[in-house]
Backbone:
């Protein structure tokens, strides 16, 4: 009963967030004009957008290997790519960003690796995702005196960027500090966790400690400066590829903007996508519209039409790839969902 109430409250909060963001996204929309923008896309660039959707899945799969090799060398590229694709498919369809757990658990099963270790690599991945985009955003903000004479954005927009940038850096720094503390002060950390688990049943405490030990092993990557630098390099490859995708997206609407000037837009879409709504619905939409209107001065109705289209392309292509992999593997989507939920409740 308590579990049912807890789930009801959690999903209630998620759907309330979704509704609030969608309300602000669609507020004052002119549907006739918005629909014209949905169909007014350049067909050649639309095809290119569809083809480029898996680009970040490929670069993420390559980058992931730098973390996984400490547990197992020669992890299959296909399994890394499939793990990313299935993870994003689950995230697109179910609320709560469940795909973040499904992704490492799927790979751990396929490659017979420890689950805690692979989950640890995902924590590292998210830390560096935030740091990379915060660095690119910082580069944009620091360079403002160089472009202020010919690139104008709302003052409020810059204020919001500074705020979200600071929040992002603070959150990523905190996560990095925790991760480093877990790894470099392993024994003290495990002793402290063991002390906190004393009131719980022995079987449960042992299971948690085993998982934490595996998780800490997933942070071995911090011990090698060479691998750390390569991972940072590939983090830039991942995010510059994502920025390139959105740059092409603007060309599909005959909007010519220098590559550098869409950094803040992509940063804002990352903020929106991190909100745990079903399929990134609402959060992604609101922040995408905010970036398009406040930084690129695009008409709000056009911004709504463009955001709906790019979101739909990403969902459809990713989910088709995800379903193809699941069909090949003989796994159902709900089996994966249960896998993530069971781990989440442990």
Residues:
């Amino acid at each position: 009963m308590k579990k049912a109430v807890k789930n009801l409250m959690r999903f209630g909060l998620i759907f309330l967030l979704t509704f609030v963001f969608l309300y602000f996204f669609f507020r004052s929309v002119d549907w006739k004009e918005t629909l014209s923008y949905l169909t007014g896309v350049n067909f050649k660039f639309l095809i290119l957008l569809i083809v480029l959707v898996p680009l970040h899945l490929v670069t993420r799969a390559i980058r992931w290997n730098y973390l996984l090799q400490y547990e197992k060398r020669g992890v299959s590229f296909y399994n890394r790519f499939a793990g990313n694709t299935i993870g994003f498919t689950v995230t697109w369809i179910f609320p709560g960003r469940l795909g973040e757990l499904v992704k490492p658990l799927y790979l751990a099963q396929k490659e017979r690796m420890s689950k805690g270790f692979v989950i640890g690599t995902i924590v590292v991945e998210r830390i560096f995702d935030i740091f990379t985009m915060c660095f690119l955003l910082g580069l944009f903000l620091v360079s403002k005196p160089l472009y202020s004479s010919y690139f104008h954005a709302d003052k409020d927009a810059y204020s919001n960027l500074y705020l979200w940038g600071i929040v992002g850096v603070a959150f990523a720094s905190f996560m990095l500090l925790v991760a480093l503390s877990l790894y470099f002060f392993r024994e003290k950390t495990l002793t402290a966790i063991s002390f906190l688990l004393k009131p719980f049943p022995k079987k449960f405490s042992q299971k948690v400690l085993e998982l934490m030990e595996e998780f800490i092993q997933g942070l071995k990557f911090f011990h090698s400066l060479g691998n750390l630098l390569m991972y940072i390099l590939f983090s830039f490859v991942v995010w510059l590829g994502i920025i390139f995708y959105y740059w092409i997206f603007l060309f599909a609407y005959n909007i010519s903007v220098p590559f550098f000037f869409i950094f803040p837009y992509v940063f804002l879409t990352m903020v929106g996508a991190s909100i745990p709504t079903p399929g990134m619905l609402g959060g992604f939409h609101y922040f995408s519209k905010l970036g398009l209107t406040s930084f690129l001065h695009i008409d709000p109705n056009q911004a709504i039409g463009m955001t709906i289209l790019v979101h739909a392309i990403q969902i459809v292509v990713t989910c088709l790839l995800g379903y193809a992999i699941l069909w090949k593997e003989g796994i159902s989507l709900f089996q994966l969902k249960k896998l993530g939920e069971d781990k989440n409740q442990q």
